[in-house]
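Thought: the user asked what SurA N-terminal domain-containing protein looks like in 3D. I have the sequence; next I should run the structure tool and report back without guessing.
Action: structure_tool
Action Input:
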Amino acid sequence: MVRGLALFAVLVSAGLLAALPGRAQEVSIKILVNDEPISDYDIAQRERFLALTTKEQPSPELKKKSTDMIIDEHLQMQEGRKLGVTPDEEDVTKIIEDMASKNNLDVAGLTTALGKAGATRPSRTASGRSSSGKAWSGRNSPARVQIGEADVDQALADSGEDEEQSSVRVEQVRLELPSGADQRVLAAKLAAAEALRARFTGCGNVTDMAKGVEGATVKTLLEQQATNLAQPARLLVQNAKVGQMTPPTVSHSGVELYAVCGNRAVTSDGSIRETAQRKLMNEEMMIRAERLLRDLRQDAFIEYR
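Observation:
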């Protein structure tokens, strides 16, 4: 929803919404932003859209929010012009389509919804001054934001994430439980599992041992990450040493034991680190954008009428 509002903001401030047909518009200038005018009509249109999309009732607070948004967009567009950013028709079309999509509508549905709310109709052919979003992303692009490896390491440590995970190779022995098994049957299966565990001498004889136990099956889990196993089996496997078999546990499908045949630390595919780095980059970009906008406001000449 936030992005939808931002996209709408680009269109309104850039003059991409055509006037309502059939009625003359009497507008008065309410604000000048570095000599660029903002009319009462601009503010009213934004307020209607915010009321439509956020379900907020018209109020002085909503009007102030609308006004502040338009002022910020004018400052962003002015900065964009300094950078020579000029979007083409494809940019404008994509903005309108994205705006509709973010509000769960197609372009026609967006037009209808805006019309019913008393807001103006989006134009698909205007290109005008929709440079604010594009310019802003240019000033705060990922290429301008550098995140150090130490920052990523610290973020991973703070979140409890670890690039190295325990990868184990185990032999899973399952003693199947019949449907509706009572406590007596369960106790018998647990006893059989304990007896099998007592005979365990290494991974080489697991299959042979299981052959003598009714309903027992053996499955080799190669390079299975311990974190993917269900509890309490996961904790038991993580704490077991290579060459040991875990105590029996009860799952929805039977009584299970795990023989740990290999255990090594493996490096993840990098997605954990990439996610942490991307999060830090987004946070830094937001901080810089807020700082830049604050500076633009401080340096701007804003006249209220």
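Thought: the tool returned a structure. Summarizing for the user.
Final Answer: Structure for SurA N-terminal domain-containing protein predicted. Residues 164-267 form a domain with the Chitinase A; domain 3 fold (CATH 3.10.50.40). The first strand starts at residue 17 and ends at 18.
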